[in-house]
């Protein structure tokens, strides 16, 4: 797999990251280890996780982090990985109440260090924003953690473009480290978050895309395959009315036809077209894939070999 440098950092990542949501929960420990082993064997080096994965299920909390920590210790491979995780997520029952006070961020970082069994986190994400707090205060908190050696770089997830700009402006004017990357919901699919139960999510929109294009900020998007809807719809495994409401638009019906056509023309799978869409933008983009099986993993990782032309991107977007 190719490698790219996360803009403005010393971190070199594989072009595709492995999603850690199912690790230790939907997949047991042996299955999780096997999936991560296969990913590493193909040249991958970044497994995306979070303190909150998969706390919505019964069983041990933060099980994804715990499983990744056990795997890194068993394989003795921490130094060959970009170790990354997310914190600052609201309590599930009170999603409207932010958790980005300095002591809350510090508490989450300490917990993640312990569960991942590492001394420092290479790339630490704030999982949500809290507009009641100034971006400057949050940047100061994160820089304190950098100075303490607990994290090296940090990014934001589910932040809007204006809040990212506020944070970056504060960091620049105070000679502090700013966000090194952004993790939005982003895929080829058109997204309508007005139908989503969670109002704290943020997707790539025109303002955010403009920010990435103008600044070169690295994007490491989640849901980069849109829950596999294009593959599932093309194969008849699901009806359009049964996909997530955020994707039930006429625009995605049209995009489905285009994806199927482009897939046939290029001789690649639909999932590879979908991932190549992210990989082909003119700023560093590292899609996070949601593989549950090694077969799915191998199919998705082949997208590393595909790049779409400007005309093909325009065709998919038109």
Structural class, judged by helices and strands? alpha/beta
List how many beta strands DSSP finds: 10
Number of domains: 1
Percent of residues in helices: 25-40%
CATH homologous superfamily grouping: NADP-dependent oxidoreductase domain
Q: What's the CATH class label?
A: Alpha Beta
Mean pLDDT: 97
Describe the structure.
The protein is α/β, with parallel strands linked by helices and 318 residues long. Helices cover 40% and strands 11% of the residues. The strands form 3 sheets. Strands 5-6-7-8-9 form a 5-stranded parallel sheet, with helices on one face. Strands 4-3-10 form a 3-stranded parallel sheet, with no helix packed on it. β1 and β2 form a beta hairpin. The two termini are 30 Å apart. 45% of the residues are buried.
Any descriptors?
five-stranded parallel sheet, globular, alpha/beta, three-stranded parallel sheet, 318 residues, TIM Barrel, 10 strands, 40% helix
